[in-house]
Specification:
The protein has 286 residues and is an alpha+beta fold. It contains nine helices and ten strands.
Length: 286
């Protein structure tokens, strides 16, 4: 079995405060994009679980969320067979795109089928939440409101397709470093995400992590400015970075921005995926 594992971007992040469990209370908009990895699952009758991947910068051992997801499912349901998992990576780690989390979620989804468990989305979501705050989102896809740690999801009606350019700096931005440096400020009195969902005005959206991210990596602010100079309807650091995206309402505008980009960082054309297209493409063409 082969499936695709797509990345996400965050169309906004609001930080509401610190939680007793040491996480931060947030409000965010998750959005699927057509940039992703490929996962292959090969049955192992001996019961072993093995993992390998193409990116040498990623640990493919017990620290990897894919291996944790497979073992969690096997132990939770007493599954006898094992599996060999091969991951062909395109999404780099530490860029705020949820590559590892998406791989873990798709592992739960695929193995539930391969092992004839056929679990519902709610049960898979419960397992996913134990692996990481944004892992459950990848079992939903499309446009979702994320609250709590980001794992309290509300699927939303999809936006019209958006086209964009994704800039991938050669360095990661670690989530713990960014949240650990956030200034202690009062939460916003009103939610710009809620206002956006009412009015669909992209200019309302903001990533409250950006000030901290830009202090750590000033280059990312320059990249964001490039997109607005090239008429993006929205540009933002995705999550805690380090990827920066610019979104456009039509494909040709995105292509012009890609052509105008002369920086040393990798730039990729991309587009958003509705929930329906997300799931159609998870299993299509592999």
């Amino acid at each position: 079995m082969k499936i695709r594992s797509f990345a996400k971007i965050n169309l906004g992040i609001e930080v509401l405060g610190r939680r007793p469990d040491k996480y931060h209370e947030i409000r965010t908009l998750f959005q699927s994009i057509d940039f992703g990895d490929t996962l292959e699952f090969l049955p192992d009758a001996d019961g072993a679980i093995a993992l390998s991947g193409t990116d040498p910068s990623i640990p493919w051992d017990e620290r990897n969320l894919v291996l944790k997801a497979a073992r969690l499912l096997k132990q939770a349901y007493g599954v006898g067979p094992g599996v060999e998992i091969r991951v062909t990576k395109q999404v780099p780690p530490g860029r705020g795109l949820g590559g590892g989390s998406g791989n873990a979620a798709m592992t739960l989804h695929a193995l539930s089928i391969l092992w004839d468990l056929n679990l519902g989305r709610s049960e898979l979501g419960r397992l996913a939440a134990s692996l990481g705050a944004d892992v459950p989102y990848f079992l939903e896809g499309g446009l979702c409101l994320g609250e709590g740690r980001g794992d309290a999801l509300t699927p939303l009606p999809d936006l019209p397709p958006l086209f964009g350019v994704l800039i991938l700096p050669p360095f990661p931005s670690l989530t713990a470093d960014v949240y650990g440096r956030l200034p202690l400020t009062s939460p916003p009195e009103d939610s710009k995400i809620s206002r956006f969902l009412e009015r669909k005005v992209f200019g309302l959206l903001e990533n409250r992590l950006e000030e901290t991210v830009f202090n750590l990596f000033p280059r990312l602010e320059t990249i964001k400015s490039f997109f607005y100079q090239n008429e993006a309807v929205l540009s933002m650091v995705s999550g805690s970075g380090s990827a920066v995206f610019g979104l456009y309402r039509d494909r040709e505008s995105a292509r012009r921005a890609r052509t105008a980009w002369t920086g040393p960082e990798e730039a990729r054309l991309m587009e958003t995926l509705s929930r329906e297209r997300y799931w159609l493409r998870v299993t299509a063409g592999v």
